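Session log. Operator J.P. requested a structure for one protein chain; no other inputs attached. Running the standard single-chain path with token output.
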Amino acid sequence: MKDLIKNIKKKKELSGVADDVIARLIEQRLASYHTQLDQLKPKQQKLLLKLIRADLRQLTGMFHPKSSKKSRPDLLATHASTEERLPHYLQLKEKIDSLKPKIILDLGCGLNPIALATPNTAYHAADINEADLNLVKAHFKKNHIKGSVFTFDLQHQPLSDLPQADLILLFKIIDLIDRKKGHKVTEPLLTQLNYQHLLISFPKIKLSGKPMRYPERRWLTLMCNRLGLSHERFTLGNELFYLVHRNYFE
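Structure written below.
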């Protein structure tokens, strides 16, 4: 399996993904085919490699920062989501500051912490892309930001392993991890994560530039109502935000 993982990571945009994340995807694919890696013929192994790369591209996006020496705006512009969010980070920070969080947990963080983290708030940053996390870690060290930077796979690791936070961020990640699962992944995030506020975002347009078919995500409103969670919605640019409130810790 090590050789397959190595070959998968030869693609530049996937080189930073954690090995254990790739291994879990391989095992998941093999289990769905009821077979073992050593039982695959060369053509089948080649197809598996392509499928895993496709899975990873959906999870991580088609980007790869070229240099950690870039200025902060230039670095943020290397990531599709953070580039789109650049004109709105000030408004987003104002919204976050209004909640007065002492601890923030950013899941699927990408390069967001470089724009959002401050020395006044403990900031825990988690992602499956180790290349991004290395850049975030360097930023935290340089700017004396308290918190932690760690690899975490929301689809396969227990949510109970995550730290408690006043505010949890889930930016443009729900559509990826809940794809074709009937929102069965989202509900545990709402009910099992330990938070007071949960800020979730969704893209309103596709990467192709075409509008989403159902951009308002009414299903999340219905889910919050069913679970008795108060929430509000707002839009910044082409991004829809749901701010979910739970005024207690489990």
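Operator note: The radius of gyration is 18 Å.
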